[in-house]
UniProtKB/TrEMBL annotation:
It comes from the Bacteria. One of its GO terms (biological process) is L-threonine catabolic process. Belongs to the zinc-containing alcohol dehydrogenase family. The keyword Zinc applies. It is an enzyme of class 1 (oxidoreductase). One of its GO terms (molecular function) is L-threonine 3-dehydrogenase activity. SUPFAM superfamilies: GroES-like, NAD(P)-binding Rossmann-fold domains. It holds the Pfam family ADH_N. It comes from candidate division TA06 bacterium DG_78. Residues 15-344 form the Enoyl reductase (ER) domain. This is L-threonine 3-dehydrogenase. Keywords: Cytoplasm, Metal-binding, NAD, Oxidoreductase, Zinc. CDD domains: TDH.
Length: 346
């Protein structure tokens, strides 16, 4: 067998096709993986829609889409020592060079030469995929395979929640997409004492409540800043975890954060945003922190421990499961926002 089914971005226009392509061969330091489950991320949707960002960022068409996966190792390239056939794995999707200044100083997640599956090179919406051995995360048998596929975005949530103090703190999570929803669960697990979430989509508002957010506000209906002040004795929240990328949400959160608080931003706005640096940052004495990817691999260790402890239930967040052939249905649902995480099975 030399061919496999894959979801391929074939042309520089909206859409993608499921076609037969060659099964890739693992080179030195790489492994071939049979994909057991994969999941759709917002980035995949942007590539599918062919938005402005995708038009500028994606250079190598045709390209297999997707980056989140659970797989089984079925072949080892040369020089792979610490892995074996049959290992069930997830994978870090940022491929670091290992020799630049950032890699050498403990910041491989922002490697200068970094490449990303399904963005810079062929991805994992396929029956098989090649993964560098150094990016493989061997799965603890206690962790369900479906969860392995979503460990990568869960790692974004874990990275953001744990990027500063959280225990005993009042937290605002802006945006309850899959990563915002995961952040609600992780914040609860880590001892946040009040969790306020904001979201505009009713389906996701319901999910945020189910996951245990204490207050869920809808900026389309509520005066978010006023309500947050009311819920925090007029002080504002201790921590903001920005998970929407929405400019209004980003700016309102500066107002809802207490003086001296932590503002961690994961959400990606698609345009520059104007802020009052003196008023909102300097005199307020807050810490603003960009969050990118996952720490390699301390975030993965924590994420895996949360999952194997059984204390983090992702079941409510995984709302849909489709066959890989039905990827277009998944993309439509993602576009509507009426979903949590969507899994695809090759
Ligand atoms: P998502 O797009 O599914 O979620 C964003 C949510 O914000 C949506 O549910 C949307 O309805 C909601 N929203 C929109 N406007 C809002 C407003 N004014 N107030 C409150 N909520 C609002 O994305 P996701 O997959 O959950 O990811 C979260 C964000 O993190 C996205 O912006 C994504 O691009 C970004 N991201 C960043 C990294 C990184 O490494 N920095 C990695 C992955 C994702
Ligand atoms: Zn590097």
């Amino acid at each position: 067998m030399t061919k496999m089914k894959a979801v391929v971005k074939t042309k520089p226009e909206p859409g993608a096709e499921i076609i037969d392509v060659d099964i890739p061969t693992p080179g030195p330091g790489e492994v071939l993986v049979k994909v057991l489950a994969t999941s759709i991320c917002g980035t995949d949707l942007h590539i599918y829609q062919w938005n402005e960002w995708a038009q500028q960022r994606i250079k190598n068409l045709p390209q297999v889409m997707g980056h989140e996966l659970c797989g089984e190792i079925i072949e080892l390239g040369s020089n792979v020592k610490h892995l074996k056939k049959g290992d069930i794995i997830s994978a870090e999707t940022h491929i670091a060079c290992g020799h630049c200044f950032l890699c050498q100083t403990g910041n491989a997640h922002i490697c200068i030469n970094g490449r990303i599956f399904g963005v810079d090179i062929n991805g994992v919406f396929a029956e098989y995929a090649v993964v560098p051995a150094s990016n493989v995360w061997i799965l603890d048998k206690k962790i369900p395979k479906d969860y392995a596929s979503v460990m990568e975005p869960l790692g974004n949530a874990v990275h953001t929640v744990l990027a500063g103090e959280i225990t005993g703190n009042t937290v605002l999570i802006t945006g309850c997409g899959p990563i915002g929803l995961m952040s609600i669960s992780v914040s609860r697990l880590c001892g946040a004492t009040k969790i306020i979430a904001t979201e505009i989509n009713d389906y996701r508002i319901k999910l945020a409540k189910e996951l245990g957010a204490d207050v869920v506000l809808n900026p389309k209906k509520d005066d978010v800043v006023k309500k947050i002040k009311e819920k925090t004795d007029d002080l504002g929240v201790d921590v903001v975890l920005e998970m929407s990328g929405n400019p209004t949400a980003i700016l309102d959160a500066f107002k809802a954060l207490r003086p001296g608080g932590r503002y961690s931003i994961l959400g990606i706005p698609d345009k520059p945003i104007e802020i009052d640096v003196s008023r909102d940052i300097i005199f307020k004495y807050i810490t603003v922190q960009g969050i990118n990817g996952r720490l390699m691999f301390s975030t993965w260790h924590k994420t895996a421990r949360f999952l194997s402890s059984g204390r983090l239930d992702l079941e409510p967040i995984i709302t849909h499961r489709f066959r890989l052939e039905e990827f277009a249905k998944g993309m439509e649902l993602m576009e509507s926002g009426n979903c949590g995480k969507i899994l695809l099975y090759p």
